[in-house]
Amino acid sequence: MHRQAFKYVYGPVPSRRLGRSLGVDLVPHKTCTYDCIYCQLGKTTKKTIMRREYVPLNQLLAEINQKLKTGCSPDYITLAGSGEPTLYAKIGELIDKLKKRTKKPVAVITNGSLLWDPAVQDALLQADLVIPSLDAGDADTFGYVNRPHGKIHFDKMVDGLIGFRKKYHKKLWLEVFLLSGITAIDAEVIKIAAISKEIAPDKIQLNTVARPPAEVFAVPVNELQMTKFAKRFGKNTEIIINFRRHTRLSGFTASSADVLNLISRRPCSLYDIANGLSIAHNEAVKILGHLEGKNLIETHLKGNSTFYVSAK
Ligand code: SF4
């Protein structure tokens, strides 16, 4: 049977936060307001704050519809992908249409840089879950870690997070990405924790480097340290270290295109691929072998783990 290759929809991917998440890419690869040193997608190629309909809305909706018809049953439809999703000018309309079309919850994973904009705030109000980021406690560290667009200033970004929370009464989880020797130090963590308190999210999720980062000096924090820092953020704080295991969905098998689609978004281990696509490990190995034979993928080593990426 011919399997459709999807351009904007990928996965379901294994998400440490969302279980099996059906990703939707709203902007071209690395179109972002930031150029984070820890970004697993590499360096930002288009740093912008220009909100546009980067992808035709009807094509996005058609693909999501098509994907859901294949029998995949994600825990979330996640608007994230390979850039900053709030740069998509029709994100509000997209969420609105998804809510009318499916009962699957819609999550938005955003760097939070544009949440000061009332249009962005209003656009996200219908999402079931919003996960913005806060990676720094002051302007200097913000500049060093997130390398934002020149028009995004730390205070404005923080005001946006606080202001959005006041308007948005559904689930809001704040992601804090800690980096060894940079933000994973007491003085910085205390400042980030104080701002987090003002934002008042339902949960704080501490994250660190798990995949090859954009810069070699973005180094992960060990579990012991993460546990120590988690205490600074209070009781609604969790450390993201793994994702839930899922059982295989009957009738859903993956094709080479599914695997390629998944790893073209971010580096994945064999475990990520097998679990994200709900396929057996040997099936994933077989598909990877096929893609390797055609020189369509490359492998990267990080520590003891092998990550697969698409050969571009
Ligand atoms: S981590 Fe997210 S916010 Fe940072 S550069 Fe990458 S895509 Fe943009």
From TrEMBL:
Q: Which cofactor does it need?
A: [4Fe-4S] cluster
| Gene Ontology molecular function | 4 iron, 4 sulfur cluster binding; catalytic activity; metal ion binding
Q: Which domain of life is it from?
A: Bacteria
Swiss-Prot/TrEMBL keywords:
4Fe-4S, Iron, Iron-sulfur, Metal-binding, S-adenosyl-L-methionine
Q: Which residues form the Radical SAM core domain?
A: 18-250
Pfam families per UniProt: Radical_SAM (PF04055)
Name the InterPro entries on file.
Aldolase_TIM, GTPase_Obg, rSAM, rSAM_sf
Determine if Iron is one of this entry's keywords. Answer: yes
Record's protein name? Radical SAM core domain-containing protein
